[in-house]
Structures are given as C-alpha cells and as structure tokens.
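Summary of Year 1 activities. Much of the first year was spent building the evaluation harness for sequence design. The harness presents a backbone, in tokenized form, and records the residue chosen at every position. We chose the following record to illustrate the format because it has been used consistently in internal testing since the harness was completed.
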C-alpha cells in the first residue's frame, strides 16, 4: 500500500505530529495495530459522506478507509554526504510514495532550533538541498553507465540518457524533479530512477496553538504557502502539540476543545485528507446490509480492479458494476429515486472509477 513519509529538520514537531496521527488511529476499532512497524501509523480517512450514506441507507456498521504514514527521523545539513545517519534517512525517504514536509512555524524559546533561529524558508531549503544533492549523485552515477550504453544502438539507454540530461541541470540549479514536465514515456523512466525530489510533497507548517483559529495570522505560514505555491505544491497549517492533545480526547471533549479554540474540525483531518490526495488516492463506497464501507483506490483504477480491492474473487468473476455518484444519492435520497432519475449506471470492465462512486459489483463465483 502507498505511504506518506513525514520529513523535516530535527525538533520541528514531526514526532508530535506522528503521535497525533497514531493516537487518532489507535482509536480505530477495526484495524489491528500491534503487528505494524513502530514507524508506521495507520490512520482513518475522515469522510462526512459516510455518515450521510449511513443516514440514507442504514447498515449494521460503518467502516472508514485507512492509509499509512511513515515517520522518518530528522534530516540534518550534510545528510546527502552521510551526516547524522544521513544515508539511512534518505533511503527511508526513497521507500515512501509522497513527502509530508513539516516546518517549524512556532516560537518557543524552550525548544531549541537546530540552526538557532526560526526561518521556515531556510529550513525548507536545507532539507530540499540535501534531497536534491542525493538525487544529483544518483543521476551522475546513472549517467556514467548510460552514456556508454547509449553510444551503441541501445534505444532504451538513449531514452534514459535524454531524461537524465533533462533532469541534471534542474537539480544543479537547486530545483526539484517534480517541477519538470515529462511525457508518459519519460515518466516511466523517471519512476524507475526513484529520485527523492520526484515525489509529490505537501508542506505542513507547525504553527503555534494561538494561531490555530486563524492560521493566516501566523507570521510564518504565509511565507511557507508562497514557497509551496512557487513549486506548485500545497501547504497547510496544523498546531502539532494541540492536535496530539485533541487526538486523545473522546468525541464530546473533542467538540468542547475545538469550540474553545474556535475551529471547526481538527487540523489533523485536513492533513490526513491532503496527504491522501497527494498520494493520488480516492474513495469509493459500498453501502447497506452488513456494512457501509469506504474503500481506497488509486486514481485511474478500473472497475474490475476496484472490485478486487474488496475480494480477489470479485475481480476474477467480474461481470459489471452498478454505480451511483454520492452526490446523486445525497440529492435523491434513495437508490430507487436515483434509478428513477436515470442516474443509476451499469458500468463494464473498462469503467474508470470516480471518487465518491457508490458501487455494487456483480460477479460470477
Ligand atoms: P521532531 O524532532 O521533529 O520529531 O520534534 P518533536 O515532535 O520531538 O518536537 C520537538 C519539541 O517541540 C518537543 O518538545 C515538542 O513538545 C515541541 N513542539 C512540537 N510541536 C509544537 C508546537 O506546535 N508548539 C510548541 N510550543 N512546541 C511544540
């Protein structure tokens, strides 16, 4: 399954955030935790559509979908040259599918900052420089091999050489591979290079609790957002320490806490949803009967493979999918009314699943 890695300088609040995520996850009734790696946390995807479906098509139980976060220890300057267990950290980042980059955006004289001052852009650039240098070393190594092979008639080597030559100057200028436009064939080659700066990134400003109600007031969040926008990336603000507290409360207490802070929902929920989208994940639902349930699929998944997420037999014996959009159920309120409105669709094996589809799969056993 896909996983989002939490990355950042030491002491910026990564563990606090990871604890908040796993504590929220630890309350999940449906998933066993004990067997999972301590650096991996499963989290439920908060989705109000599930409550609405349950209201309209009541089932015995409701099961949200989940995905993984991986906690990656702090990166320090020089990591790409092996400083502070650098290579190992970079290797851990290589294993994740998307990067959640945590940046310190709170003042607190009691919490030491590795470079002695709070400067979010400097912090972001320190990390991105290490990732870029590591990629540049990988690209150079690959170039040395491929250049030789490309001299002959090796078409694949020629294609890879062209991609490497496109990437190198961007990295040398301090840019990230994810900012380069590639066509489909080039993209396949890029994927095979497993470069750190090719992974999608979400910047998370760890703001002070005082700024929770109005993150735009934080003197640091704005600059982080601007930096992200220049890269075409998203930035969100959470107050990690407060989120860790919230995650431990029961539902009533949680509501009181949020009201006292003047916020509508935990920032953690926004972080979870944004990370889910960053990974290219979407949700379909099965509804009614024993359980109403949300399922995770990768953008672009076709109906039979989506059926296979529920059970491999469903994929093998796939006949068709009966699909209604969540928005249509929300509007027409019953499946019968959706059908009457002509919005209940019968889809075949080439149907590409959409976020919010409510599906019944028909299959041979
Ligand atoms: P990591 O090294 O990035 O994992 O950082 P930690 O999560 O261990 O946090 C470092 C220190 O900063 C701890 O003492 C945390 O309690 C504190 N900390 C984390 N988030 C916040 C925050 O939002 N506000 C304040 N004031 N302190 C925080």
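For this record, the design step produced the sequence shown next.
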């Amino acid at each position: 399954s896909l996983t989002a890695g939490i990355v950042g300088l030491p002491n910026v609040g990564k563990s606090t955030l990871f604890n908040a995520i796993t504590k929220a996850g630890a309350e999940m009734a449906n998933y066993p935790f004990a067997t999972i790696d301590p650096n991996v946390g499963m989290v439920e995807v908060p989705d109000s559509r599930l409550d609405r479906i349950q209201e309209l098509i009541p089932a015995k139980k409701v099961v949200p979908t989940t995905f993984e976060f991986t906690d990656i220890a702090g990166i320090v300057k020089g990591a790409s040259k092996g400083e502070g267990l650098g290579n190992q950290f970079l290797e851990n980042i290589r294993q994740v599918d998307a990067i959640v980059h945590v940046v310190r955006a709170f003042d607190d004289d009691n919490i030491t900052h590795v470079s002695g001052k709070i400067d979010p852009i400097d912090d972001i650039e320190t990390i991105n420089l290490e990732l870029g240098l590591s990629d540049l070393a990988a690209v150079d190594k690959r170039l040395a091999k491929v250049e030789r092979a490309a001299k002959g008639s090796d078409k694949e080597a020629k294609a890879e050489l062209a991609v490497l030559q496109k990437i190198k100057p961007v990295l040398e200028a301090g840019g990230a591979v994810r900012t380069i436009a590639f066509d489909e064939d080039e993209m396949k080659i890029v994927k095979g290079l497993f470069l750190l700066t090719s992974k999608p990134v979400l910047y998370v400003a760890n703001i002070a609790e005082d700024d929770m109600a109005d993150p735009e007031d934080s003197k640091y969040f704005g600059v982080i957002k601007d930096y992200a926008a220049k890269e075409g990336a998203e930035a969100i603000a959470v107050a990690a320490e407060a989120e860790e507290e919230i995650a431990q409360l029961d539902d009533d207490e949680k509501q009181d806490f949020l009201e006292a802070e003047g916020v509508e929902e935990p920032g953690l929920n926004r972080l979870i949803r944004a990370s889910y989208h960053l990974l290219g994940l979407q949700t379909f639902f099965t509804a009614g009967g024993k359980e109403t349930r949300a399922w995770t699929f990768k953008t672009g998944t076709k109906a039979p493979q989506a059926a296979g997420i529920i059970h491999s037999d469903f994929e093998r014996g796939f006949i068709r999918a009966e699909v209604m959009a969540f928005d249509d159920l929300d509007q027409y309120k019953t499946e019968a009314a959706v059908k009457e409105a002509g919005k209940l669709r019968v889809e075949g094996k080439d149907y590409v699943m959409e976020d919010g589809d409510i599906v019944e799969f028909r299959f041979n056993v």
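The first strand starts at residue 3 and ends at 7. Quantitative recovery figures across the full test set are reported in Table 2.
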